[in-house]
């Protein structure tokens, strides 16, 4: 059902954390469902890592490493098994969207906005000048779409 | 304040392969000395990253510390086949910055998701060879981009400026910013394919 992929400039914005919140949610949902774009995100993050590695240097305080050591020494290691993602609560609902809704598509309280179109305003705090909503287009299948009006 | 390689000992250059080996070793042995080497390499670079992102000197140092607390705790999860040490540490620093400054986005950039999903998934199209040399290549290739293009790439990286913020800042139409960024990334990809070390 996905016939649309993320552009390079959107992936770069997502990788650098500079995409507005609602748009970032849409991208996150897409990434969960699209391995191709996930691979391209890994490339964008690798580029960002390379930029960090080659960034200019500014000296931190002299005592910082000792302070840091004092903080972590004696901490037990965290076993790798502690980092598994919880199973998705409902099939077909991207986990980032689930985090926002707390329930699946069936429980959404849609509002009619036009013939065959219902919408649901997402309960997230959007970035400035942005709003994020789900649209349900009838008939038949549910097509979750977020509209994101770029600030002009 | 800028650190210069004036006295020989502070040159602070390690290759990507060396950095990844250090991080892997930290995960296995938790050696203070290895941790110090990673700290000495990355802390001055992270400082630039956080300062340019708008943090005060004090907050930058706090964020550097927090980054390394996570590095210490999670080093065991690092897998050099999935990401370079720089990418891994970048992701931690980025998430901390979002957590601090962009609270409305924090739930999308969670470390546990990154560690579980991204590093365990096989989705990356980067092969090992390409990945291990990427930083060295980027260093060569980034200066080859036209200034107007590299500026846009860097504004997103350092200041997490959105497309529309960049447009305001540079007094350009939003469409121009997006197309310039797209061109820059395409150009970068092409240059990276062609570069030999």
TrEMBL record, chain B:
GO terms for biological process: DNA-templated transcription initiation. It comes from the Bacteria. It holds the Pfam family Sigma70_r4. Residues 42-106, 142-190 form the RNA polymerase sigma-70 region domain. The keyword Flavoprotein does not apply. The keyword Signal does not apply. GO terms for molecular function: DNA binding; sigma factor activity. NCBIfam families: sigma70-ECF (TIGR02937). This is RNA polymerase sigma factor. It comes from Pseudovibrio denitrificans.
């Amino acid at each position: 059902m996905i016939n649309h992929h993320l552009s390079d400039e959107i992936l770069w914005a997502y990788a650098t954390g500079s995409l507005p919140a609602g748009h970032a949610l849409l991208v996150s949902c897409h990434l969960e469902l699209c391995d191709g774009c996930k691979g391209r995100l890994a490339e964008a993050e690798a580029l960002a890592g390379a930029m960090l590695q080659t960034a200019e240097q500014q000296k931190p305080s002299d005592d910082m490493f000792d302070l840091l050591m004092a903080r972590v020494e004696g901490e037990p290691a965290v076993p790798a098994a502690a980092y598994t993602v919880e199973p998705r609560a409902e099939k077909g609902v991207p986990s980032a969207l689930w985090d926002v809704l707390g329930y699946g598509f069936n429980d959404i309280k849609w509002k009619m906005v036009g013939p065959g179109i219902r919408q649901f305003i997402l309960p997230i705090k959007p970035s400035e000048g942005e709003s994020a909503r789900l649209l349900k287009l009838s008939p038949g299948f549910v097509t979750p779409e977020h509209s994101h009006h770029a600030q002009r | 304040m800028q650190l210069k390689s004036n006295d020989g000992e502070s040159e602070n250059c390690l290759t990507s392969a060396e950095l990844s080996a250090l991080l892997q070793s930290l995960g296995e042995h938790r050696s203070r000395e290895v941790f110090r080497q990673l700290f000495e390499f990355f802390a001055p670079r992270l400082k630039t990253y956080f300062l340019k992102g708008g943090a005060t000197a004090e907050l930058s140092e706090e964020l550097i510390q927090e980054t390394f607390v996570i590095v210490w705790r999670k080093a065991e999860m690092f897998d050099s086949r999935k990401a370079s040490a720089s990418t891994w540490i970048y992701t931690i620093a980025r998430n901390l910055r979002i957590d601090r400054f962009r609270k409305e986005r924090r739930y999308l950039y969670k470390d546990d998701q990154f560690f579980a999903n991204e590093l365990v998934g096989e989705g990356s199209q980067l092969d090992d060879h390409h990945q291990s040399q990427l930083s060295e290549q980027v260093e060569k290739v980034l200066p080859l981009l036209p200034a107007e293009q590299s500026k846009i790439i860097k504004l997103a990286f350092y200041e997490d400026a959105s497309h529309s913020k960049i447009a305001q800042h540079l007094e350009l139409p939003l469409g121009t910013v997006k197309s310039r960024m797209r061109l820059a990334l395409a150009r970068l990809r092409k240059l990276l394919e062609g570069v030999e070390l």
